[in-house]
Structures are given as C-alpha cells and as structure tokens.
Amino acid sequence: MHEPDEGLQAVFLANRQALLRFLEARGARGDAEDVLHEVWLKLERSAPGPVASPMSYLYRIANTVMIDRFRSARQAQLREAAWSEATGDPEGGVSEAPSAERLVIGRQMALQVDAALADLPERAREIFQRSRIAGQPQREIARDMRISVSTVESDLRKVYLVLAQLKERFDEE
Amino acid sequence: MAHDSRIMAEAADWAMRTAEPDFAAWEDFTLWLEQSPAHNAAYDHAVMAAETSAEALRLAPANDGAPPEVSDTPRRNYRWYGAALAACVALLCALWLWQPGAGEEMYRTAPGETQLVQLGDGSSILLGGDSALTLESDQTRYARLDQGRALFRIEHDERAPFHLDVGSSTLVDAGTVFDVAIRSAQIRVGVSEGAVIYNPEQQNRMVNPGQLLTIASADGSYRLDQLSTDQVGEWQDGRLTFRDASLADVAAEIAAETGVDYRVSPGSRERPVSGSVLLDPLKSDPAMLGELLGIRVEREETGWVLHAE
User: Fold this and answer.
1) Which residues does chain A have within 8 Å of residue B73's beta carbon, measured at their own beta carbons?
2) Least confident segment among A120-134, B86-100, B262-276
3) What is the fold, at CATH topology level, of the domain defined by A6-78?
4) Which residue, among B26, B53, B231, B271, would best test binding to A if mutated, counting the most A CBs under 10 Å from its CB?
5) What is the ipTM of this complex?
6) Which pTM was predicted?
7) Sign of the torsion formed by the C-alpha atoms of B81, A133, B191 and B216
C-alpha cells in the first residue's frame, strides 16, 4: 500500500520508547506494544505526506487510538447491539428502532447539555460548538467572534469541566 | 465512578488542550498521566463527555432547529465538519493527489478514512473510505466517482445543473443531497433531499427522496426501491445498512469504511446478508462481525476471512 512519509517513519523509530511510555501512561499497560503497532499501521495507511511537527503528530495518533479503544470497550460493555433488523427474521423486527431510539437519547442528552451550559456565558456554547462540531481551532474562533484567544480558551475549559461533571452525574444514575 | 474534583478539573483542561490541532505539550501530558492511574481514567471520562455532548448537540439541537449564531459558517455544514472531524481526527485525513497540468484534480482515500471536498459554489462532497473522485478544474459543476462511495450535497443551480459520472451512468442533480456507492456489479444511489435524474439522455428517470436507485453496471438497467432517508449517507455517522446484499459486497464496503482487511471465502461470496452494522466497534474487534452477521470469521495471514455457515 502507501509508504508512510520517510521522515515520520524515522521519527517513529527514533522515539519508540517515548511513545510506549505515553501509551502505558494512557492505560494501555500490557497492550502498549500492540497499540504501538496499530499506530504504525495507521501511519502506513494514511501516508499523510510532510507533517509540520512529526512527534506531535505521532502522539496524536497514539492518543486517538487509545480514545478509540476506550470508546469501543465502552460500547462493547453496553452491548448496545451493533446489529438490528434481519429481514424475515421475526425476532429481528426492530428495523428502524435503533436510529429513532438514538435520536431520542440524543435529544434528552442535548437538553441536559443545554441546561448544564446555561450557567456559563452565552458565547461559551457557541465556542464549544465551533470547536467540537465545526472543528475550528481556537485562534479562528477568536477571530470570527472578535474575542481574545484567552477568552476562548477559558470558556472552553469551563465547558469541558461542566460536561465532565454532567457525565459523572449521568453515569451514576 | 466518582472522580476527585481537582483531578477532574485538570483532566477537563487536558481534554480541551489535546483536542486542539496544534497541541504540542505531549511530554507534559505524559508526566501528568504518570502521576496516577486516576488521571488517565479522568481524562478518558472528560474526552468522552465532550464527544458525546457534541454529538448530542449535533444530532438533536435542543433549541429546536434555531441555528446558533454562527455568521459565516453555514449551519448545514456542521454535520459535515463533525463527521469529517470524527472520521479523520486531527488532520489524519486522506491522501490528496493533484496532477498539475492535466486539468484534473484527483482525490483518493485509503480504507478507513474519509475526506471532505469543498467545491467553490458551496457544494461539498464527503468521500468514503477506499474511494476515488475526480474533478475537472475547468468544469465547476462536474465530478466523476471512480471508486467507492461519496455523499453529495449540491447547491442547486437551475441554469447549471451538477453532473456526476459514475461508470457509464450520468446523474444530474435537481437540488440535492444524495449518496452514491459503487459495488461489484451495481451502482447504488440514495436520495435524501431534492432529486436526481438518472441518464437524462436515455432512461431519464427521476429519483426522489426516500428512493434507492440500483443500476446494473453491465447494461445500465435499473430498479427503484424504498429507502429510509435516514439511511442516506449514514456511513458518515459510522453505520452501514444492508438488505439482501451479497456477502462479498458487504465485506468490501465494511473493509473500505473501517480499514479492516475483510475477505470472503470463495464459496460464501453470494450469500445474501441483511442488517445494520455499527462500524467503530469492528475496528478494535474485527471478529465481532461474525456474531453480527451469523457467519464464521477466521483470522488468517491475509486478513479476516468470512465463511458463511
């Protein structure tokens, strides 16, 4: 398939230990070597071309793999069936249910999120949406909204904390 | 599980900072994580909290459709950016090839990746995994899907309809959101908004929202079926639905979207399969597909091989 950028490849090999250490700290424990291999495969598949800051790029991939693993483990736990509907199977007659159900849960969640964000300055919600949904970097948000980057950062920090606390209450229920 | 409130505040801070594309303090972050396993648990918690909240706001704006006051980012693009962001976190995007002089711009994604292609007129195309798209630099209202799948969101212009070539078929938009997938012997087109006209010069068939057009690649003959509009482009949210599709097609499509190397044993290729599959869990546990489809999955040197029982 695609050869990874040679620079990245070299940086990966030279910094294996640092990446392993990061993965262990990120909770990979005995799987750290496997995860590192996964990072390598991702690199091979994505062949990103020249990257401004290779080491940050590698850390980011490693972190993303750990987030994916965490999410998958959670989903497996919830056994929120990755499968519905089997045409002709009487027990599988739940065809459109998953997406409808997902939407309802999503709406409830959105209401909760709204309520949780109501205590923050109004612009905080917009900043969060721009950051997480539109994927804008903080600098761009600051420019578009004509506020300082430190305001953006400080609002965003508050939103993250409020949401983490909200999720904690959710999980306890 | 309750987290210490100071740790939670620090974790939320790291979750925010590491989400920034230019975050560089990974060594400091490592040191913080190493101070206690509770730090890592709190970080995962904070990341998931932000992710699920953003997802909830994106899928179901609680303020009932009133767009947030985002002046210069059209709201309709949110879904797109969100999906693109989720799929290729932090610039880990697709290949972009450009052939200077040829007048063609080619976009190519690897398995498991997606790429958002913005056109000058406000239209956009989300390219799925293992797919190839060609644009002509002198024809702004034209594209060609060479391989794989793509979701088109086309700004309609009465005077300059958008043309898409797929194999020997041509699709013309009539104000439109539609999804196109090339399979082994078929082209499938689902429409969720507006309409698409199939081969105006020949069949001249209008495909409306909620309809699925299946074209036989061999002779251009077609069939129309019902389709839930929710399912149009659902792959951008990490889901694929199949109805009586051959196991070979199912394997190829899931492989393209997840990057997992699925193959089908020779005797099982035509086995019909129906179902709706969430893609993310398969990336970390490819064998799970067996349970989902009621088939046997074996790890072999060449990849994951599917056997119909």
Assistant:
1) 130, 134, 136, 144
2) B86-100
3) Rna Polymerase Sigma Factor; Chain: A (1.10.1740)
4) B53
5) 0.83
6) 0.48
7) positive
Confidence of residue A86 (pLDDT cuts 50, 70, 90): very low
Amino acid at A130: R
Confidence of residue A33 (pLDDT cuts 50, 70, 90): very high
Q: Which of residues 140-159 of A touch B (CB under 8 A)?
A: 144, 153, 156-157, 159
CATH 1.10.10.10 describes domain A99-172:
yes
Q: Domain map of chain A by residue range?
A: 6-78, 99-172
Q: Write down the pLDDT at residue B113.
A: 85
**Residue B91 in contact with partner chain A when CB distance is under 8 A:** yes
Write down the mean pLDDT value for chain A. 77
